[in-house]
Amino acid sequence: MPSDETRIIIFRNRVRSDVADEYGARAGQIFELAEKMPGFVSSSDFTAEDGERLAIIEFDSPEHLAAWRKHAEHRAAQGEGRARWYEAYSLQICAVLRESRFDASTDAPALPAIEEQRPFERVQGEGGCACGRIRYRVSGRPVVAALCHCGDCRRACGATPVAWAAFHRTKVEWLTEPPKERASSARAFRSFCPDCGSQIGFRYPSEPDYVDITIATLDDPDAVAPRDHLWIRSKVAWVHLRDELVRHDRDFVLPPAPTS
After folding, report:
1. Cα gap 30→43, rounded to integer Å
2. E-state strands within 40-109
3. Which of 31, 41, 180, 186 has the least C-beta neighbours within 10 A?
4. pLDDT of 115-136, one tens digit each?
């Protein structure tokens, strides 16, 4: 089964008409070479009626794909392709976002419903800063969990994006002294440990019912998974989003605060 590490090569090409017969033998040699590479999973080839060829090659990780890309004989064959075999080609490297399968021998014929987004699960857990001076407990359902790409989060945390979960303020309890707070902009306050500097909380005075917690400071950060990207307009160019999370140009107004 494909995983987050799986990489798939989509190789479209058109072979020169005067070398088509010779090309088949050379392509077979390269397939045998790829098949022996660590991490090789599968390869399939198709030819369309108009002569375009399609190859789909799967490797189990970026590292194994990189080894195939750099393999000396493969590199030589690529050079041959440009000089001798191809009229044109395009190559795409893909990651698997989602997969569904159907087997008529075991699966029901009816198309399954598309699952609607469910409310977040309740979080019962603790978290804290790097040095341990600040500890907190959350006991409730997040309203929002998102990855923020804004410049303020980037500078405050030294990373991008930053994962946040918003809770009703009554669902967050400080087990030690509360963190230190600063006004990070004209409309927002950030809280952090005065000793180690860990960024822990965030709040808008305009939304007094909520407090945001950095998901990474939870003892179990897997307890909450982000569902949105915020401030995409500020995303740095080298962050590549390969997921199906909802993207927002800015942030958004939180829904009415739950009390459960």
Report:
1. 11
2. 40-47, 53-59, 86-95
3. 186
4. 667 889 999 999 999 999 999 9
* Nearest one of 147, 169, 171 to 240, comparing CA atoms: 147
pTM for the model stands at 0.77
Quote the CA–CA distance of 214 and 129 in Å, as a whole number: 10
80 sits in which H/E element: helix 72-80
Could you tell me if 133 and 222 lie in one domain?
A: yes
**Which CATH number belongs to the domain containing residue 44 in this structure?**
3.30.70.100
CA atoms of 107 and 101, how far apart (whole Å): 9
Q: Is the peptide bond prior to 161 cis by the omega test (within 30 degrees of 0)?
A: yes
Q: Are 253 and 160 in contact (CB under 8 A)?
A: no
**Which of 73, 4, 1 lies closest to 37, judged by CA?**
73
Specify the length of the chain in residues.
Answer: 260
Residue 47, in any domain of the structure: yes
